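Renewal narrative, Specific Aim 1. Our central claim is that a sequence can be written position by position from structural information alone. The example that follows is taken directly from our test logs and has not been curated for this report. It begins with the structure tokens describing the chain, in the order in which they were read.
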């Protein structure tokens, strides 16, 4: 593309700082500089491995950023703009000759050192060349779709998606961008294949474990089908960080709402795009980049907070998943209609088992189908207000259990027909299982609510 461009997104960054006397730039052979950039982008340099590699090991191998004065935690770079020692350097930065790979920064809507460090960790977590952290999960999803699709483009998407994503694909993108979507049963591979039109379909979009129905996507097969037709597979892995590694299973791009499990505190809104460096570079292009021009910028103070939480994500996920399996198993024995892919009778149990990273379980969410919204609300009332088992609230990944009736909350953007097509029962209670207290203590609270409302389990 003619004209100026954004400096490329390359990491890990060399372990050197610019001197105070002059901008430390190499004006020599550009070919040597480009070769250096290429080597930094290779998976071995990022500490990545095979599809079976433990994501915790990849995180441990990622570069550790120390503080400016030697602190064990990195410093927060709160500046919006950055200085250079020589005016000529700024021209070279805007021309794309110098960038964050060599410790040159322009403006924090573009790249910020603290946000870059979090992005590096997200890339290590998901096993991708690069990542870019954004202000929300929806900004990550919308930016990827707008980068990959132009006016007249087509998306094939799972029929069971988070309500906000469904609304983006159903209403906003057709109206504002002339981008249309065909929704399919992601489990029906023949239907998925036939829905993709070679040359027109640009993206196949799915959630690794769907919200709220907990359907598991066959990522390796979806990858094969998409690539056969020149389509990019984008997977939202918000429900299954550490549990699944979609990029190692064949996905091209992985998106996250970091607000959920990765944050763990229900106090931060954030997102991430994880994928090839070429894609991230294109999203930062000064003329055509969706991230650069739409500006869903992450605050560096938020990036610092999140960087401090990722190291114990694996420990938290194991406990979320362990308790979800125990509660799902016991509730099923008690006669409840439970949906959880860790149960052997779940239709996707063996599929998830074949794809999951070892020792991380089957996810931290489960559902109880109470069949009607009235029954669902009565159950949640007892669980929160009588037994203190959890909170009636949307979102997930919190250390306390959160529960909501999906049809009237996080999937309310879907009309009745769309909910039926997605398999969302009016009484489906989605539970994000927390890990506070002891397991026996929380189970006793759950039993207390059920015993108080025995009529709720009489079908």
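The sequence written for that structure reads:
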């Amino acid at each position: 593309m003619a004209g100026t461009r954004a400096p490329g997104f390359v990491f890990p960054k060399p372990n050197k700082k610019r001197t105070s006397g002059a901008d430390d730039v190499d004006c020599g052979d550009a070919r040597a500089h480009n070769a250096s950039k290429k080597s930094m982008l290779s998976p071995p340099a990022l500490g990545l491995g095979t599809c079976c590699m433990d994501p915790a090991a990849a995180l441990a191998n990622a570069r550790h950023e120390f503080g400016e004065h030697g602190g064990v935690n990195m410093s927060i770079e709160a500046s919006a703009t950055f200085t250079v020692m020589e005016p000529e350097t700024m021209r070279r930065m805007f021309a794309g000759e110098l960038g964050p790979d060599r410790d040159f920064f322009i403006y924090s809507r573009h790249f910020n050192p603290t946000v870059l460090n979090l992005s590096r960790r997200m890339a290590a977590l998901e096993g991708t060349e690069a990542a870019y952290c954004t202000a929300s999960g929806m900004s990550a999803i919308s930016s990827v779709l707008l980068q990959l699709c132009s006016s007249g483009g087509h998306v094939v998407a799972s029929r069971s998606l988070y309500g906000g994503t469904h609304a983006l694909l159903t209403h906003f993108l057709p109206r504002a961008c002339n981008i249309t979507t065909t929704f399919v049963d992601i489990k029906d591979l023949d239907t998925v294949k036939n829905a993709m039109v070679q040359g027109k379909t640009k993206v196949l979009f799915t959630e690794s474990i769907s919200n709220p129905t907990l359907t598991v996507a066959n990522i390796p097969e979806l990858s094969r089908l998409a690539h056969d037709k020149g389509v990019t597979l984008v997977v939202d892995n918000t429900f299954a960080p550490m549990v699944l590694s979609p990029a190692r299973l064949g996905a091209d791009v992985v998106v996250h709402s970091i607000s959920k499990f990765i944050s763990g505190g229900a106090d931060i809104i954030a997102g991430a795009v994880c994928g090839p460096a070429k894609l991230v570079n294109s999203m930062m292009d000064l003329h055509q980049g969706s991230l650069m021009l739409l500006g869903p910028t992450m605050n560096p103070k938020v990036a610092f907070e999140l960087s401090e939480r990722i190291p114990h994500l694996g420990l938290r996920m194991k406990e979320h998943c362990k308790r979800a399996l125990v509660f799902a198993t016991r509730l099923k024995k008690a006669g409840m209609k439970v949906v959880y892919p860790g149960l052997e009778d779940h239709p996707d149990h063996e599929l998830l088992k074949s794809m999951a990273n070892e020792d991380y379980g089957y996810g931290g969410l489960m559902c109880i189908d109470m069949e009607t919204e009235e029954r669902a609300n009565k159950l949640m009332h007892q669980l929160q207000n009588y037994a203190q088992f959890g909170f009636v609230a949307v979102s997930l990944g919190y250390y306390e259990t959160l529960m909501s009736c999906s049809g009237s909350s996080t999937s309310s953007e879907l009309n009745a027909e769309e909910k039926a097509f997605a398999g969302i029962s009016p009484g489906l209670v989605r539970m994000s299982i927390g890990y506070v207290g002891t397991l026996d203590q929380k189970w006793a609270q759950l039993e207390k609510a059920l015993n108080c409302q025995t009529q709720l389990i009489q079908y």
